[in-house]
Amino acid sequence: MDFAISSILFYVFAAMTLICACAVIFSRNPVTSAMNMALCFAGTAALLFGMGAQFLGIVQIIVYAGAILVLFLFVVMMLDIRTEEEDNSFSVFRSLVRMAPGALVAGVFGSMICIAALKLPGATEWNNPLCTACDSIGELAIGEQEPTQVQQSGKYGAALPKLNPAVAAKVLNPAISDEEAAAATSMPDVKLLGQRLFTDYNVAFVILSFALLAGTVGAVALSRKIRKD
Amino acid sequence: MSLIDTIWNWCVDLLHNDIWFYLITTVVKLVLMFAVILAFVVLSVWIERRVAGWIQDRPGPNRAGIPLQLFQRFGSKEKQPLKEWLHFFGIPESCWIAKLCTWLRLDREIPTFGLMQPCLDGGKLFLKQELTPSYVRKVYFTIAPMLVLGPPMVAAAVIPFASSVSTEFGDINMVVANIGIGPLWIFAISGLSVYGLTLAGWSSNSKYPFLGGLRATAQLISYEVAMGLSIIPLLMMFSTLNMQDIVQYQADNGWTLLPLWGEGLSWQRWALLLPLGLSFIIFVTCVFAEANRTPFDMAECETDLVGGYHSEYSSMKFASFFMGEYAAMVIGSALVVTLFLGGWSIGFGADAALHSVCSWLAVFCQFIMFLIKLVAFIFFFVWVRWTLPRFRWDQVMKLGWLVFLELAVANIFLTAAVLYFVK
After folding, report:
1. ipTM of this predicted structure
2. Using CA atoms, how far apart are residues A133 and A120, in angstroms rounded to an integer?
3. Judged by CB atoms within 8 Å, which residues 2-21 of B form the interface with A?
4. Structural domains of chain A, ranges and CATH numbers in brackets
5. What is the rounded CA–CA span in Å between residue B81 and residue A223?
6. With bands split at pLDDT 50, 70 and 90, how would you rate the model's confidence at A151?
7. What is the pTM for the complete model shown?
8. Do A77 and B202 make contact, defined as CB atoms within 8 angstroms?
9. Does B191 touch chain A (CB under 8 A)?
10. CB B115 within 8 A of CB B121
């Protein structure tokens, strides 16, 4: 087959994610927003699946769609939605005050993402970014594995680059030979992620865990009623 | 003749194409898995009601046969076909065979032992009036039952129902999706059915369903934590997340809870039984809670919530909730069987022996074995439901957060200690 189904699915799910993300903001009903957000997370998970990072995709569903968003929904349902829906009085000052913090936060995050994306290999070569990105992955390519289809077609946005299991196996364990690495068929993404988290990013990981623990303890302390007797 | 040859050659050519081979085998496996799950939903309703009857010392639904009067109506002249048959074979009417036949109601109907009952109940629910109250939020009210029934069906994709077969066209792995994240996939997808329960409760716009929905959400989220933590000891032992590999390991080295062959005979492996047994208890309890079954059916407990989240539903929408609950039970049972009771493996080295004889025979026997284990565990599910009384709501929460969570975390450290010091 000449066309890659995963490329088509990428665009389908990317479109779904973006549309749902817009619907989160534009819908007046908080429950509809929350459900759209769930679809948005599902779309992101599908993108990760398409790239071969199954573990990240499933964690996205378990943690965000399965737990955090359900708690969101839980809280949203207990709010009185009608007051929110009927509050349609328009005022320039109030809408400005409402928008400014949102715009600020969105700007900060947007620029963060842009900077991160620009630092990726080949991102600044505007005529053909995907190709250069694949070249830099291709340097890691092992044995007779073709780097990617993109390099062959040499066209902007022809087929999306896929993660290479052989490269991943080599990264995971540099001691193994090229032949063994080339024999790898599935992404060892759980192992890769675990290795990275517990070696390179161990300090950040532990600090984050403590932050979460502190948050949990704080929530319990705040919500507990202290009896006077 | 040449036409048949042409068609045959065309099929062989088609199967020699990798993509078509993959597509065809996947579709066949998909249909088989769906058929098994749906058949088991029906079967587990029947098991539930028969076992309930048995435990409560009453017959349960044992009729629903095909009445012989039906044949009379369509032109058969014989009023008492049983007597005619007895005369034909020359058996006296007072003989024990005749009595047995009468006891089996063969003189009146073709018996099905009540197996037709769930099908007839389904038909009844189809024909009932669909009543949507005027005060509900219609969109969410409609999609909620779908969100309950859908996820368990999708979650079944990663459960292996037999080992693999190698044909001349390629290997067929008897699992729909052989992905490297097996149990996590099931947790993630079946965890999504909580949306259905929550939305059903909220969109009904009425107090009792709302309380039921909130309870369901809180309970499912609480027990998901302990459930996820409780299988970590197993994963430490298997050191893989692929379900097919997990079952293969158990086929070679003894089931998780029954290490009686292969490497399972070593005393180090037996030392591991303590943490593994603990995680079995935690996991099974959490599966009960996740499937919303008694003693954890807080979300629909009729003594304080009328019908819980599905109070306002009628006809097939109600039936979807019902089926979703049973499908979740079947998937939960299949997961327990796969992780703890050896999945499809027959045990005692029989898998490898059968494979050396004929791999198709081995796969068939393994499939049957898997179904037997599944039925046995569903029976256990039902047994617990009709034996234990329901918990109180605060007891359920306390059990989840204060007992099982701590136990599961401690169990991980215990397993690590055993693995480190003993092996």
Report:
1. 0.77
2. 8
3. 19
4. 1-85 (1.20.120.1200), 94-162 (no CATH)
5. 74
6. very low
7. 0.81
8. yes
9. yes
10. no
